[in-house]
Amino acid sequence: INILEPKMKVPELMKNIDIVNQGESYSLNVSKAKTPKLGKGEVLLKVFSSGINRADIFQSQGKYPPPSGASNILGLEVSGEVIKKSADVHTLNIGDKVCALLSGGGYAEYASAHSELCFLIPENIDKFSASALPEAIFTIWHNIFQLGNLTKNETILIHGGSSGIGTMGIQIAKIFKNRIIVTAGTEEKCEACINLGADEAINYRKNDFLSYIQNNVPTKRVDVILDMVGGEYIEKNIRLLRYNGRLIFIAFINGSKVNIDLLKVMTKKLIITGSTLRSQSLENKIEIAKSIRKNLWPLAKSGHIKPVIDSTYSFTKAMEAHNRMKSGEHIGKILLINK
Amino acid sequence: INILEPKMKVPELMKNIDIVNQGESYSLNVSKAKTPKLGKGEVLLKVFSSGINRADIFQSQGKYPPPSGASNILGLEVSGEVIKKSADVHTLNIGDKVCALLSGGGYAEYASAHSELCFLIPENIDKFSASALPEAIFTIWHNIFQLGNLTKNETILIHGGSSGIGTMGIQIAKIFKNRIIVTAGTEEKCEACINLGADEAINYRKNDFLSYIQNNVPTKRVDVILDMVGGEYIEKNIRLLRYNGRLIFIAFINGSKVNIDLLKVMTKKLIITGSTLRSQSLENKIEIAKSIRKNLWPLAKSGHIKPVIDSTYSFTKAMEAHNRMKSGEHIGKILLINK
Questions:
Q1: B63 to chain A: which residues are within 8 Å by CB?
Q2: Residue B221 in contact with residue B241, Cβ under 8 Å?
Q3: H or E segment and range at residue B21
Q4: pLDDT of residue B219
Q5: CB-closest option in B260, B272, B276 to A258
Q6: Are A204 and A183 in contact (CB under 8 A)?
């Protein structure tokens, strides 16, 4: 593969975050690793910032190994500057500032990214905050709109409304004129969701979401549910969906093993599905990226979609960033900043 | 509603089959009921034959009440002659011989049917056997092809391959160039499925279908599963599906309450769905009918799709027809003949 020479000198070794004692009591340390080599269609980014995802915690705990071929280094999304590119990349130039979806390798000084999974950072979004966009936008667009086929005027229930994914989901569903109900764990989180555009925010510590919606929401039922909780939510979700409803899983924080009655899946013609981004082929991800470039990126450029940032941690504080996510107190995204 | 006058005299009362002692030990008796009145878009059929469906048994047992507005009389599909029609029906003429999907009322001398759910009987199919087509064709087309999006060269597993639905599914999937695996309960049934075009027929009394497919079928996994069994099949189905696989329920003979792990739904991006015909709106059924008229009816006319008839019973032997279905010994459809 021909690699165009970088303007910036790229060292052979770079700083990265290593997982020490992978398992429940892991820790994260700054270490050195080889700077990534580029494959076909790839660019090398000097990383500004890396978005923290729950998958990073699972990987650190040894529960979520990276797919074959992916970097062992944590980090599924970054923002950065293109400093080197494979000769077959024509859509990006050296010096471009982008954010990118990765299949690993984000917690590092440099990261390789597929050019088709890079997006130019909109002018109104700062170069660090942009790293909060890729995972959330890809996840919301693919699951809610592509798999879930959420249609104008339909009602969507988003569990975990104040998460990085949830805060993005509220904004996008609002733009597409959907009625939005979310669940969240504190009054402060509920308020944040309402401020972002949710029509109803249910504090699940105070109210059972099923009976709350049945008793307080005019529609009583919902068309689409984005679930990252699983466990005892699953049967309630199925009861809450109207005819032709769609239940979409993007995580199972409370577990995926359940005792359920699937009869309503048939009688209500429900669709149960879900996805993880990382398990999808590069071709699939590129297809999703094309659809996002067409349907959503103009909305990020125009300021209608903004990253919601909970907190930022400097590179040496990666473990504190993970602890913040584990605390469950965050609203929006947590970032790891390379400066 | 204007009703065009029939050429044949229609009596006020007609023969029908009544459920006596609805419940587990029900019986079926010939009785008298009012001849149906016609609504907008409907035609009155002098019934030649009525197809027996498992739903009829569930209804007789009191487990499957007819939807509101539907006839209380059993029977979800018939063949018959149009002897009267609502004035707004322009697609059918008095004297046309058709088969029709009903939401009830088939076990009778006369039945009303929506004109859009009637299909002219192809010349190569006799007027009795035609009553075996509607439920099977609608079920297969809607579930496997519309919901399941079965695509050329994909592999489909049909549980209950020798049932009325199964025998139709094999024929249609064959035409659309799919690899077809079925399960059935005897060697004779397996042979019938192979003769209809199945590539593999697994006798589930001799072999576990999951390990059989994993060890003996080159693809090892399947793309689409049509399941009418449920119960312990469900987890096995989920394990057997490849990435992007679809699991579609049309019945739960072994129950719908299960203990399962839904993790693979997310990691393999599966779709779990299903439907019953009767619970769908008239508009939905008409949409399905349009697609069938375009995609499948020409294949019935050309002799590529044929009803597979297990046995026929005269009108007074309805209970024997039900007992035949309950025995599970049938291959193909059981019909109730009005002669």
A1: none
A2: yes
A3: none
A4: 86
A5: B260
A6: yes
CA B210 to each of CA A269, B26, B143, B166: distance values in angstroms, whole numbers, following the listed order: 26, 37, 22, 19
pLDDT at B134: 98
What confidence tens digit (pLDDT) does each residue in B60-111 have? 999 989 988 899 999 999 999 999 999 999 999 999 999 999 999 999 999 9
Smallest CA–CA distance from A251 into chain B, residue = B266
Least CA distance to A271: which residue of chain B?
A: B273
Nearest CA in chain B to A142: B269
- Contact with chain A for residue B250, Cβ under 8 A: yes
Nearest CA distance, A96 vs chain B (angstrom): 34
Parallel, antiparallel or unpaired: strands A27-34 and B333-337: unpaired
Residue of B nearest to A259 (CA): B259
How far the first Cα of chain B sits from its last, in Å, is 31
CB contact B282 to A (< 8 Å):
no
Residue B327 token pair: 């025995």
Is A294 a domain residue? no
pLDDT at B59 over 90: yes
- Flag whether residue A8 sits within 8 Å of chain B, measured between CB atoms: no
Does residue A29 surpass a pLDDT of 90? Answer: yes
CATH number of the domain residue B209 falls in? 3.40.50.720
**Closest CA of chain A from B152, distance in Å:** 20
Distance (Å) from the alpha carbon of A151 to chain B's nearest alpha carbon: 18
**CB neighbours of A203 closer than 8 A, spacing ≥ 6?**
A183, A184, A185, A186, A187, A189, A190
Q: Which two tokens stand for residue B313?
A: 């019973």
Structural domain of residue A310, as residue ranges? 3-133+306-337
| Domain match, B87 and B176 both | no
Asked if the model's pLDDT at residue A4 lies above 80, the reply is no
Q: How far apart are CA B117 and CA B163, in angstroms?
A: 23
Does residue A283 sit at the B interface (CB-CB below 8 Å)?
no
> Do A257 and B256 make contact, defined as CB atoms within 8 angstroms?
no
Residue A62 structure tokens: 């040894």
Residues within 8 A of B (CB atoms), A 136-155 only: 147
Asked if the structure places residue A287 within a domain, the reply is: no
Question: B274, B292, B311 — which closes off a domain?
Answer: B274
Our count of domains for chain B comes to 2
pLDDT band per the 50, 70, 90 thresholds, residue A84: very high
pLDDT of residue A219: 86
Does B252 contact chain A (CB < 8 Å)?
yes
Test A257 with B260 for CB contact under 8 angstroms. Answer: yes
